[in-house]
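Continuing the batch. This is chain 6 of the set; chains 1 through 5 are on the previous pages. Same settings as before, nothing changed between runs. Recording input and output for traceability.
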Amino acid sequence: MEDCIFCKIIRGEIPSAKVLETETVLAFLDINPVSKGHTLVIPKAHYDTFPEMPADVIAALG
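Output for chain 6:
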């Protein structure tokens, strides 16, 4: 999705401090952390809602 900030991070259009990257997910440090080490883990494919995600992607998230 073109305007999605997370899609832009995945495409490298917005820099991020990557913690982990796999074929399915990307984990990176939050730019406005609530606590030290605050990390976001997102699927690399765009989904509008959680129920849209396949079971293997959900499993890879956590």
